[in-house]
Amino acid sequence: MSHTMIIADDHPLMRSGICTEIEKHREYKVIGEANNGQELLELLKQRLPEVILLDVRMPGMRATTLVSKIQLRCPHCKIIILSAYDDAGIVKSLIDQGVDAYILKDEIQDVVIEALRTVLEEGGRWMSEKIRERYNSASAEAVGTDLISKREWPVIELLCEGLSNQDIAAELNIAKSTVSYHVSNILEKLKLNSRVEIVLWAKEHLDRQQ
To answer: Is the domain of 84 the same as that of 178?
Structure first.
């Protein structure tokens, strides 16, 4: 009997590549694909796989929020994160949330089967050496301020001044999409839900950065 899984990634070529690699092994079977978080949640109403391979960056929903919804809807599903990023704060946030594996996209073809075997057959948690280093580094630091990167602090400071993403982009001479990316990362790392919560958090911590 094959172990079943759903792949959720907004890049069709990435999904296709993962499917091709998995289909080389008869003990694993892809039973569904999703292009975004909402599609995945709708798919989980119809099918409950043993494993979900989940892209950390998809439109419409932050990864931590989506993971929480998956854990409620499909508590026995294993969750394997797929990411192009090794940001220590994001790594720590998701692993602490209870995901079963964290794979960097540039190493998927080499390690996805090893990760699947670890979480399904051995009941363990899988991380590459690089991800383990990021996680241990973040865990050793103080929670909160040390998870925020040097590029994210100026964004937080300008949020505290009430600037919009467009105004922050103009002030820092970066793209508006880059500002949105930073804000999303900050929310994810600190497990916050809104810009207002970032401002409230910052009032307690910004003085440490002066």
So the answer is: no
Q: Do β-strands 28-34 and 3-8 pair in parallel, antiparallel, or remain unpaired?
A: parallel
User: Within this chain, do residues 56 and 36 fall inside the same structural domain, yes or no?
Assistant: yes
Structure tokens given for 99: 């995901």
Q: How far is CA 157 from CA 85, 142, 177, 183, 208, in A?
A: 24, 20, 18, 12, 13
In angstroms, rounded to a whole number, what is the distance separating the alpha carbons of residues 46 and 196? 37
Helix residue ranges, H only, 54-128 = 63-73, 88-97, 108-121
Per-residue pLDDT of the chain (210 residues; tens, 9 = 90+): 789 999 999 999 999 999 999 989 999 999 999 999 999 999 999 999 999 999 988 887 888 889 989 998 888 999 999 998 788 778 888 888 899 999 998 888 889 999 999 999 888 999 988 888 888 877 765 556 667 877 888 899 899 989 999 999 998 888 888 899 889 888 888 878 889 989 888 877 665 444
**How big is the CA angle at 47 (ends 78 and 5), to the nearest 5 degrees?**
40
Residues with Cβ within 8 Å of residue 103, at least 6 apart in sequence: 80, 81, 82, 83, 111, 112, 115, 126, 128, 131
Q: Which tokens in the block code for residue 125?
A: 């948690």
Among candidate residues 140, 161, 178, the one where a domain is terminated: 140
Tokens standing for residue 155: 């964004």
